[in-house]
Amino acid sequence: MPSLYIYNTIFIFMFQNTTKYFHTIKIIKIMKSALKYLTGIAGPSGFGSKSTALQVTHNCSCPTILTAIVTGGTSGIGAETARVLAKRGVRVVIPARNLKKAAEVKEIILKETPEAQIIIMEIDLSSMASVARFCSQFLSLDLPLNILINNAGVFSQKLEFSEDKIEITLATNYIGHYLLTELLLEKMVETATQTGIEGRIINVSSLTHTWVQRDHFSLSNFIHPHNYSGTRAYAQSKLANILHAKEIARQLKEGNARVTINAVHPGIVKTGIIRAHKGFITDSLYFLASKLLKSTSQGAATTCYVALSPKTQGISGSYFADCNETCCSSLASDASHALRLWKQTRALIRRRLHHPAL
Fold this sequence. Notes:
By secondary structure, the chain is of the alpha/beta class. The protein has helices spanning about 1-40, 55, 75-85, 100-110, 130-140, 170-195, 220-225, 230-255, 270-275, 280-290, 295-300, 300-310, 335-355, and strands at about 65-70, 90-95, 120, 145-150, 200-205, 260-265, 320, 325. InterPro entries: NAD(P)-bd_dom_sf, SDR_fam, TIC32.
């Protein structure tokens, strides 16, 4: 009996100290990551949190004119992404709900890069019919499609629904981009086959995807939430963006298609989404944390890096932050969840849109 007592005591001591050890290691890793972020120390790619979109694409030469679609290109990191891609010789299509704002962005880009090719088209990502209409109109232009950047995002503090009766954040951030990708994927594969140039899809996600708990992840609950939280809805949509990238990457690899898809976290940037959190406390916090926030150009860097860099050639199904591959949450890496969500979303769109191609 005494020996059993001693054994248990030793086991408990070892377990407690091992737990403390791994907890300490975790804290050290977090501190190292924080230090790396704050100082802008470059990762394996040669870039870090302080790198700008222009810097990370400086040596990205395009052998021919590429065509890119950039959603959310009328403001914030979307507009900066469009500007930098145009500066690097990419023909940029900006689908927008607000055509006036899109025209203003086009004017700004042309002032800096007079030879830029900017095409403005109408879309409402929260509307399945509008997304389908945009895709039909784009395909009728008979242009190649090399790059698709699913960047647009909304944050709604109150519960709102799209015309398809889906919660507006999910409808815009995830389902709209899901449908956009599905309807344009064949064109991207065709372009890559004909040109020999790898096609690239980028889903702009967020670190907030890590806030979603596995037990609470359900598409039906997202569509019609009972206890609505704007922050939770946004985080769920960003998790869905990563899972979407994971599943499409699997399908593309299975089909030997020369098209990649990855998800990116742009960092914390004071964009329109951040400004949706209005109030004294939020403004005060962001004033105090101003040194932690990225500029718009820094926020667009990872997207532009993944879209154009030769270093990302052949990489698919990955998650990038600060222009380097990194880990996403275990839920976001779950292949079975990714496939289930893809099938559920496909079924939902079929029911609402009655689209034979899906």
